[in-house]
Amino acid sequence: MKTFDLIATSTFGIESVVRHEVEELGYEINEVADGKITYTGDIEAIVLSNLWLRSADRVLLKMGEFEAKTFETLFNEVAALPWEEWITKDAKFTVNGKSVKSALFSISDCQAIVKKAIVTRLQKVYGIEWFEETGPAYTVQVSLLKDIATLTIDTTGSEGLHKRGYRVSNVEAPIKETLAAALLQISYWQKGRILYDPCCGSGTFAIEAAMMAKNIAPGLNRSFASCAWPQVPRKLWQELREEAREQIDQKGSPIIYASDINRNAILSARENAEAAGVGEYIQFFAKPIHKTSLPHGDYGVVICNPPYGERISDIKELPRLHKDLRTLIDSNETWSFYSVTSAPEFERDFGKKANKKRKLFNGRIPVQFYQYFGPRPPKGGENFKAVE
């Protein structure tokens, strides 16, 4: 089967997690750069990547890469690429662009040149002057970085991979599903350990953990742009979705708790969990942190995205919130604790330096992922490896 290069894009700081997920699918990594993991795959890889990658933002089909310092070069190089292998003569396609530290800095001009070059080639190949645009949709992206142009087609679609399809409530999610999944993999948590999120909001950490523990493919119940492409057979989508359903763990029951001070948030989180098919595996309850306690059991993991910025009405509440989290985790020395926040004084308020920190972005907000390691379980500790 013919192979080609695919790019899994990611939030800055979690490239290693996405790389691990791609390798778990069985594909060879070609390059890891800021925000993107390039690997070799086939038609089946397009389907499996969209269905199974938990931490990637999008899956892009790489069409070509070249140096472009002039619009003439950009036009000629784009026109030389085999767009007809993917874009049908009845297709409707758009071009998005971005440029960083490049001579061709006008994004709108770059988009127009790329569009013209593709149309020119397709007109010649198909022998037509007018495109009906009644067929499948394709989104082409031209990305210029230090004068190197990368041309891709988005296999995922207008909504990124974080749109799992389970968020039925209108409550805004404080953390993207893809980032939550990545942080769970970075942590010590595995399905054999207790998980507790005391600031759960709409339930993202708990739901993503339950889906991971039950081996539910994150893209199982949603559609992608490439579902409509004739190059990716509909039967293949059906077969691989059915295989994914058969791989769901029907026996295991993860131990997951989630609480929040906001009762409405808990109601929304329950709705979302039910929509994700994991409602029965998560115990939700409404309670402020200073009135809660760790669930019974040793070697558990607390992971949370405590309120900060616009999510907290009074900035003066933050130090007390962080101190309450310290009191909570200190009640059992075998537990591990993880917090993702933009609050600059978190460690000071928490009263303890993190064992490890990781710089990340939650959307466009720069954050730190503070990691406090508890001891490994005395038996089977080798089964609880975190992604580096």
Ranges where pLDDT stays below 50 over 5 or more residues in a row are 381-386
Q: What's the end-to-end separation, in Å?
A: 33 Å
> What is Rg?
23 Å
pLDDT averaged over residues:
93
Strand order of the largest sheet: 2-3-1-4-7-6-5
Strand content: 15-25%
The portion of residues assigned to helices is 25-40%
Q: What is the succession of H and E elements?
A: EHEEHEHEHEEHEHHEHEEHEHEE
User: What is the count of helical runs?
Assistant: 10
What is the strand tally?
Answer: 14
Gross morphology: elongated
The main pleated sheet reads as: 7 strands, mixed
List the helices and strands and how they pair.
Elements: E1 4-9, H1 15-24, E2 29-33, E3 36-41, H2 43-52, E4 58-67, H3 71-79, E5 92-100, H4 107-126, E6 137-145, E7 148-154, H5 177-186, E8 195-197, H6 204-213, H7 234-246, E9 256-260, H8 263-276, E10 282-286, E11 301-304, H9 317-330, E12 336-341, H10 346-350, E13 356-362, E14 365-372
Parallel strand pairs: 5-6, 8-9, 8-11, 9-10, 11-12
Antiparallel strand pairs: 1-3, 1-4, 2-3, 4-7, 6-7, 12-14, 13-14
Helix pairs in contact: 2-7, 3-4, 5-6, 6-8
Give an overview of the whole structure.
The structure is a single chain. 30% of the residues lie in helices and 23% in strands. By secondary structure, the chain is α/β, with parallel strands linked by helices. Helix 4 (107-126) links the parallel strand 5 and strand 6 (137-145). It starts with a strand and ends in a 16-residue tail after the last strand.
Nutshell version of this structure?
It contains 10 helices and 14 strands. It is of the alpha/beta class and 388 residues long.
